[in-house]
Design a protein that fits this description.
CATH architecture of the largest domain in chain A: 3-Layer(aba) Sandwich
Number of helices of chain A: 6
Largest sheet of chain B: 5 strands, mixed
Largest interface: A-B, 19 and 21 residues
Order of helices and strands of chain A: EHEHEHEEHEEEEEHEEEEEH
Structural class of chain B: alpha+beta
CATH topology of the largest domain in chain B: Heat Shock Protein 90
Oligomer: heterodimer
CATH topology of the largest domain in chain A: Rossmann fold
CATH superfamily of the largest domain in chain B: Histidine kinase-like ATPase, C-terminal domain
CATH class of the largest domain in chain B: Alpha Beta
Number of helices of chain B: 11
Strand order of the largest sheet of chain A: 2-1-3-4-5
Helix content of chain B: 55-70%
Number of domains of chain A: 2
Number of strands of chain B: 7
Low-confidence stretches of chain B: 1-19
Helix content of chain A: 10-25%
CATH architecture of the largest domain in chain B: 2-Layer Sandwich
CATH class of the largest domain in chain A: Alpha Beta
Radius of gyration of chain A: 20 Å
Order of helices and strands of chain B: HHHHHHHEHEEHEEHHEE
Number of domains of chain B: 2
Strand order of the largest sheet of chain B: 2-4-5-7-6
Low-confidence stretches of chain A: none
Strand content of chain B: 5-15%
Number of strands of chain A: 15
Structural class of chain A: alpha/beta
Largest sheet of chain A: 5 strands, parallel
Shape of chain B: rod-shaped
CATH superfamily of the largest domain in chain A: Response regulator
Shape of chain A: elongated
Distance between the termini of chain B: 45 Å
Chain lengths: 235, 378
């Protein structure tokens, strides 16, 4: 497992790296003391695992996660039960309290092992296994791209819709359209991008347009131009 | 006004309320007698102006006054016992109006009876006297009853207003007794405040040092112990010398230097004559903690921290300065608010804590009067 240690305190990074020596399966590829350096190292090493201090000068650990296009497994480290961690109650989330107990570290690494490729769903392509980090006010989510039903823009604010939630994200639809796999996500009109995996029905709509029914009951009308593209796609 | 000593507004004065109640009873009686005398004089003189002076009117109004006095005395007892004075105005009127109407009827009824008994004599004495005549005319009788009912209602309303004022005063006093108790508890809590973030981070860095620099690890354990000792003991002390306080600050900064390494640069300069002065425990320490948090912890680059103390014009001036920008949370932040609260509890308004932007940094200036008993060297 390729790992990065991100903490603003050098001695805390060295101490964690020492603890990780007991775990040969974890390879510490780098250390970073601030968010900017961390982003660079993430792009360079594409780690499987981040040890991330929540509080860092300038930008904090969450700011880092928000700018990553694909978020690896994260184990948060903090000296004290951080109030921000309460935002995660619903997600399975790992965090370690400093000074880190070796037994807890071992247990966290056990859970962090990359899941074996799911044989039950052979249709999953690698780009579908990506996930993003979403923070909206006090609440936070790690969201698998597979869970996302659609992205929607209203008044310059982009919402990501999954399950019962529709938090806002700091990315524009055009940015998303450029980066999402076109085999999985489809630009439906000026203000919506839908996940093709979540389309349950397609019906003809006025003016030779199409309307999609999504798995969560959302109805999405395609623009005329995009309806043409969609027909080509499904041929 | 009264001979009994004014009750001390302290919670440990059990007889305080009783003393006040008897003093108040006496005042109430005096006011009652005065009021009803005035009513007699007023009506008699009014009769004298409109008609002419007659001794019989003095007799009649004195009777009314005695009846009114007795009724209102009773009304006060009922009001207090039934706790009408704790009702809202609506509930009050609902009870007051019938009671006063009853009172008015009672007064006029008793007066009629008295007059009937003495009428042969009275009628001969003052022929045509309107009051007496009125007492035999049912229309006038009703008017008189309403008139005196009105007087009683006015009386009762004044009484109600007075009781409300009294309750307000009492709850105000309770309020500040409560505030004093809270302030005391707060002071103890504020002093012994221990920042868990700092403690666990310090322990984490010491564990790192055990491997890297064992002798420094031992030094840091000593420093952390003495810091914990002064923090945990702070609630028991009202003051410490500036020298002791600065030794805590140095321990703290040495521990933080392990975490921040070369990012934290410290400069402490203190006048010798300031060292023996007293300060509230941990007051400088909290300012330094704040400066480290905002000046070093929130900025990726290195930062310089300066602490200075000197005596100018009978004032001990302690300055804690860090590099960085002033944010609104620095000025009104929880930590500073707590320090200000502590200062106001100990020094009233004689001490001050100012935080301001200062040439690329943030400067906290603490001014304590050297003449204050909490500051003077012992």
């Amino acid at each position: 497992m390729k790992a990065l240690v991100i903490d603003d305190e050098p001695i805390a990074r060295r101490e964690l790296a020492r603890l990780l020596r007991e775990h040969p399966e974890v390879e510490v590829l780098g250390q970073a003391g601030d968010v900017r350096d961390a982003v660079r190292q993430c792009e360079k090493h594409e780690p499987d695992l981040l040890f991330l201090d929540i509080h860092m000068p300038g930008a904090d650990g969450f700011d880092l996660l928000e700018v990553l296009d694909d978020v690896p497994r994260v184990i948060f480290t903090t000296a004290y039960e951080h109030h921000a961690l309460r935002a995660f109650e619903v997600n399975a989330l790992d965090y370690l309290l400093k000074p880190i107990e070796p037994a807890r570290l071992a247990a966290a690494l056990e859970r962090a092992h990359p899941e074996p490729p799911p044989a039950s769903a052979p249709n999953d392509t690698p780009s579908e296994l990506k996930r993003i980090f979403v923070r909206d006010g006090e609440r936070c989510w790690f969201v698998d791209l597979r869970e996302i039903v659609l992205f929607e823009a209203h008044d310059n604010v982009t919402h990501v819709v999954f399950g019962e939630n529709r938090p806002t994200i700091r990315r524009t639809l055009n940015y998303l359209e450029d980066r999402l796999d076109p085999a999985l996500f489809f630009r439906a009109n000026r203000s919506q991008i839908v996940s093709l995996r979540h389309v349950t029905a397609v019906e003809p709509w006025f003016g030779e347009r199409l309307r999609l029914e999504m798995s969560d009951g959302n109805l999405v009308e395609l623009s005329r131009r995009r309806s043409v593209c969609f027909r080509k796609l499904s041929l | 006004m009264q001979n009994t000593p004014k009750p001390q507004p302290t919670p440990d004065h059990p007889s305080g309320l009783d003393v006040q109640e008897t003093g108040e009873d006496r005042r109430f009686h005096l006011a009652q007698i005065g009021l009803w005398l005035i009513i007699v004089v007023l009506h008699v003189s009014l009769g004298a102006i409109i008609d002419r002076f007659a001794w019989v009117s003095v007799i009649v109004y004195s009777q009314v006054a005695v009846l009114g006095y007795l009724f209102t005395q009773g009304l006060r007892v009922v009001t207090l016992r039934r706790r009408w004075h704790e009702l809202g105005l609506g509930g009050w009127l609902l009870r007051s109006l019938p009671a006063c109407l009853f009172g008015g009827m009672l007064i006029i009824g008793a007066l009629t009876l008295l007059t009937r008994l003495a009428s042969p004599l009275l009628v001969r004495m003052v022929k045509g006297f309107h009051e007496v005549k009125a007492l035999s005319d049912p229309n006038q009788l009703a008017g008189l009853t309403l008139y005196w009912t009105g007087v009683l209602v006015a009386w009762h309303l004044c009484f109600y207003g007075y009781e409300i004022l009294k309750r307000l005063r009492r709850s105000e006093r309770k309020q500040w007794q409560l505030e004093a108790a809270v302030a005391d508890a707060e002071l103890r809590a504020l002093k012994s405040h221990l920042n868990p973030h700092f403690v666990f981070n310090a322990l984490n860095s010491i564990r790192g040092l055990v491997e890297e620099e064992p002798s420094r690890a031992r030094e840091m354990i000593t420093r952390l112990s003495s810091m914990l000792r002064s923090t945990l003991g702070a609630a028991e002390r009202t003051t410490v010398t500036l020298e002791q306080e600065l030794s805590t600050v140095r321990d703290y900064l040495a521990l933080e230097a392990v975490r921040f390494e070369d990012r934290l640069r410290v400069d402490i300069s203190v006048d010798d004559d300031a060292l023996s002065l007293h300060v509230p425990p941990l007051i400088v320490q909290h300012l330094v903690e704040n400066a480290v948090k905002h000046g070093i912890g929130d900025n990726p680059g290195p930062g310089k921290l300066e602490v200075s103390a000197q005596v100018e014009h009978a004032t001990l001036v302690i300055i804690v300065r860090n590099e960085g920008q002033l944010r609104s949370s620095d000025v009104s932040g929880d930590g500073l608010e707590q320090s200000r609260r502590r200062l106001s509890i100990v020094y009233d308004e004689h001490a001050s804590l100012r935080v301001e932007e200062d040439d690329g940094g943030v400067k906290a200036t603490l001014s304590l009067p050297t003449t204050h008993p909490s500051t003077r060297p012992s």
